[in-house]
Fold Opsin 8, group member b.
Amino acid sequence: MDIYSSKLSPVLDIGVGVFLIVIAGLSIVGNVLVLVVAYRRSSKMKPPEMLSINLAVTDLGAAISMYPLAALSAWNHRWLGGDGTCVYYGLVGFLFGTASIMNLTVMAVVRFAVSVNNLSPREQISRRTVKILCAWIWLYAFTWALLPIIGWGRYGPEPFGLSCSLAWRWMKVDGFSFVITIMCFNLAFPSLIIVTCYFGISLKLYCTYRNCIKEGLQIPNIVKMNRRLLIIAILISASFIVSWTPYGLVNLWYVLRSGYPLPPEVTLLPCLFAKCATVYNPLIYYTFSKRFKREVRHLFTLCCIGSSPSQAVVNQSRDSMVSQRHNQVTVIGINQLLDRSYCPGDANNAPG
């Protein structure tokens, strides 16, 4: 039996190819916009925001290096290139997937560290530290991606034949320890850390809100901003975990219950759902970040409609003034506001 031939109907193959091209296009456009906006405001960027850029790089890399090959294979009704491209596809998929989940984990830990200390992100973590964290993320992901090449685990085709990943079906005996290890260190433990960190941040913000309401104070803008940033971070992390969890569960089924194979169509859906994870982040930024939405609209005006140089200078100056005023308020007020973020109960809970 040809392991690289499609196990789906020809019509479904064509539909899968179209779907992958659409997802690739959306992902490339969205993440390129994230990188362009980041470049335009690089001088004002806080160090933790570099992790968001790193996340956009992983999503963009996956969309460019993987999805077109899978789409062409779907239209060909057979995986193109055989063993060589299959190993390549599995390796880069594992690389970018691991880099993404670890990037989200580091983002959660950094946000938690900044939140529990009454300092601004610029003071709490340096640009050099973030660069070291980014380098560690890629080294960690690259190490895991190489392990199947050197003999622990293996890469192979997916059950439906139009994609390649870890060869889950053939790792029940010789690769079972590898499967359990990657599920723990690259999905379960990172997810637990992410949930714990954002729960801690949410609790601190809740205490701040409760304190303001009790004292009859207006909710400060800095607290509202932190709430919006928290929503963005939680949605980004949740979208990735929710996208990849069905895929992980289906592959665990193949490892633990290899004698009861699932229909090819059933194994296809979680795979396609996981690939959609590269699209969500720019949509979340555009929906919840006023600054990102403003920058994207400004870029659209410059590229598609055409804006005079003088108007572009005016818009740039206005955005700069708003950003400077916003940063000034943040630095001045964050210590005073977050110092009051205790949860009131009895008198012993109040700050001295």
